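Homework help board

Subject: predicted structure for assignment chain

Our instructor gave us this sequence and asked us to write out the predicted structure in token form, then describe one feature. I got the tokens but I'm not sure how to describe them. Can anyone check?
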Amino acid sequence: MLIFLDIDGVMVPAKSWERPCLLSDGFPEFSSKALLVLQNLISDDVTVMLTTSHKSRFNIQEWKEIFQRRGITINNLKTLDECSFGVSRKDEILNWFNLNSINEDFVILDDDKSLNALPTFLKDNLILTSPMVGLTENHLDIIKSKLGNNLHTT
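My token output:
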């Protein structure tokens, strides 16, 4: 399975009135609810593709360490290629799918409402979070229903 993962508004709720708690690596702490959901999705046959605007801030090894410090081990971690300034998340994801053919299930975890304009075959796999809440256990139920028997949760 392939997980396209945003961070802000998914793993880190975006509360304008509250500054996120930064850990020793200088990156925000993940929500405990989001951590629980992601932990349930990660297995050896899952690849996480970071779509976050922070994706170029760290190399893959640094990202693995960021996730590890927060309780998640991700062996298969990649990032979308950096696109030109001003390219939307929707276009980044579309570009990736236009350049890559996949034969596996996938899910897109994001809070960007512009992703509602994705083509149906992509939008059907979109889990749109509320930016102020992030990823929750309710989303895990939706992911399970979308992926059916192909999801092996812990």
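Reply (TA_rk): Your tokens look well-formed. For the description, you could write something like this. The radius of gyration is 15 Å. That's the kind of observation they're looking for.
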